[in-house]
Amino acid sequence: MNLRRLVLAATLSSAAVALCPNDANACGACLAPPPDLTQEPPPLVGAHRMVLSMSTDRTILWDQIQFAGAASEFAWILPVKPGATVELGSNAWLDTLDAATTPQIIPPNPDCDGTASCSMSGEAVVMGCGDGGGELAPVEATPGVDVVSRESAGPYEIVILRSDSDNSLRVWLDDHGFAIPADFDPIIDDYIDEGFDFAALRLLPAAGVSQMRPVRVIQPGAVPVLPLRMVAGGAGARTPMSLFIVTEGRYEPLNFPSGSVNKANLEYDFNTLSSNYAAERDRLLALNNNAFWAVTYAAPGSLFKVIENPSNELPLTYRISNGWSYETFYEAYLSQAFVNGETASTYCVDALSTLAADGRRVVDPCDAEGECRAVTADEIDVRSLHCEAPLGSDVPFDDLAVALVGLHPKDVWVTRLDANLSKEAMVNDLVLTPSPDQSELDLFITPFRGRNNPCAGRATVARSSRIGRFGTGVVLTAILAVALTRRLGRRAVVRGHA
After folding, report:
1. Is 395 inside a domain boundary?
2. Burial 228-241, CB ≥16 within 10 A → b, else e
3. Ramachandran angles phi, psi of 351, nearest 5°
4. 162 part of a folded domain
């Protein structure tokens, strides 16, 4: 940070995007046995957060839900392409993406004799979690159903199934505790006809809420489709969804209407220090009978570069759950993972710090049998971007690394889509396509109008004059405090743990 930025950091408040780590489940179709009126009701999906990373090599879907109701028989089933694998994801990955792409509102005309704040308002979305239990019964042969793989991963037991018959698959799922509503039969049959396998997960008996993790599904090739027909399982009348697309370029829905909030309709109230952005976004989401996707953010380079707040020319900071702040997404992601216990150290920050301008292609040089080839000069070995496993595990912390496979880091965009889908809207899968408009959709939004504006009728004060009011001694003291805090914070978090 140069001296100019340090002086401003000592005297002006910068924006901070807060991260709120939490435990949550993954869910395709969330299925439960038929309701027992003597027990709690079965779980219902409250909301979805999903990440879709796409390249010609492979596609990875992370899925995390909020649900309500009894989850002792919670189950998960999702159609997947043949050759798919299912692994654990991390809370830090989804939490950081969520917070980092939440639009930040800048008040219009923020400086007025020091009476109005020049900082931004914004809040991170918090996903809840539920309890869970149950297990898959021992796998028994069912005519017409092949068990492609079966394994345990963290708190989950995972089975990938292949069938040529909807009825055979239903028998297997029913026999193993997955209650399939009758109206799902034609949906499952369609997925079978389209050549899909099915991933089925249940929580192991000892799994508790503190152990529950997001799940990521890795599929070969480019699969720009979100299986909404299956996601509808367990959904209520409306299902809020946030989808983060990590790939080269801005993407948008092909078969759903979509659009962005019109800034001309936005208004900021200086009395309440709030805007009508959320109301305008919700109005968008209700269009087309709640079958509409709002594009709320789209930008290249945001995983690795410093993003400047245009209202004060300071870096946007990402504040993690222990109160410490970082100026890049990857540092916040890694440090939040350390606080969560999802990695044992943050030493891999050095490898990630070089990616902002790196035009090489990230590759996984190892095949399914573990044989690894040498990488070329224009490639990055994904293993070099892995972070240390958590204590007691040999599985590296690698969500950001695996999301980059097949991509060139300097060309990677993050696009955020939000929806509040009706169940009727989920009769079709969401198909994604490159957007004809490849312009950025900025994180920072200034409402077109202001209400109760304290600047009305008064001259504004130049931002540079604010520094003069504090006096040289106070500014120097603040500079030293900021510098010492940043030095100690980085030493403790980024270098202080092995």
Report:
1. yes
2. bbbbbbbbeebbbb
3. -65, -40
4. no
User: Which one-letter DSSP state was computed for residue 255?
Assistant: S
| 3-class DSSP state of 61 | strand
Q: Give the Å distances, CA to CA, from 454 to 104, 442, 457, 458.
A: 21, 26, 8, 8
- Residue where the block lists tokens 């799994």: 207
Residue 242 lies in a domain: yes
Measured CA to CA, the distance from residue 168 to residue 362 in angstroms comes to 41
Check: CB of residue 121 under 8 Å from CB of residue 274: yes
Query: Vertex 16, ends 12 and 17: CA angle to 5°?
Result: 165
| CA 122-127-129 angle, 5° bins | 160
pTM: 0.79
Residue 147 domain-assigned? no
Q: Is 284 helix (H, G, I), strand (E, B) or coil?
A: helix
Which domain does 240 fall in, by range?
3-132+208-494
| CA distance linking residue 61 with residue 51, whole number of Å | 6
**432 burial class (0-12, 13-18, 19+ CB within 10 angstroms)?**
buried
Q: What is the DSSP string of 139-192?
A: P--BTTEEEEEEEEETTEEEEEEEES-HHHHHHHHHHTT----GGGHHHHHHHH
Length in residues, the chain? 498
Query: Is the Cβ–Cβ distance between 387 and 353 less than 8 Å?
Result: no
Domain count, the chain: 1
| Structure-token match 């890694």, residue found | 334
Phi-psi region of 423 (alpha: psi -120 to 50; beta: other; left: phi over 0): alpha
Give 10-residue mean pLDDT values along the chain (498 residues).
28 45 39 45 67 95 71 71 90 93 82 41 30 40 75 78 81 77 81 89 63 81 91 80 97 97 92 92 96 97 92 88 93 96 95 96 92 96 96 94 97 97 93 96 89 64 35 33 38 38
